Amino acid sequence: MSTSRPPEPGGAALDVSLDETDRLLLAQLGRDGRASYAEIGLLVNLSATAVRRRIDRLRARGVVRGFTVVLDPALLGWHTEAFVEVYCRERTAPEEILASLRQFPEVVAAWTVTGDPDALVHLRASDTRHLEAVIERIRKEPGVQRSRSSVVLSRLIG
Prior knowledge:
It is built from 5 helices and 6 strands. The protein has helices at 20-31, 37-44, 48-60, 94-101, 128-139; strands at residues 2-4, 15-17, 80-88, 107-112, 119-125, 144-151. The longest helix has 13 residues, at 48-60. The radius of gyration is 19 Å and the shape is elongated. The relative contact order is 0.13.
């Protein structure tokens, strides 16, 4: 069984074949990206060296693009959330939007979208004052022209 990567900008989809061991490694990394090679090896029945080689190969092939910290907004006291439509100046590339948004720990997720806005950003903050400050900082980013926000009142699903 193989998994296809999304197409590179301006290119065709790349076929990336993954075996069962690769899938197990990826599942373990998804659960705990800080686990040691030895810990992962115990769970997938490989030596630490073999785990490292496979992970290095997955990174070189672009299957694993990096490792990140996932913050728990509730434990940070960030109980206010909003969705912000971001409207950019002409010719602002998605990579520029991503680079701008990556600097904000309050950004939970972000997507480029169809329609009038260029991106939809999910934010978490401690209160409306914190939320307003983050939105104002986003609006000051070089490619951003304006934004429109919707504050979440209650979560119905998810």
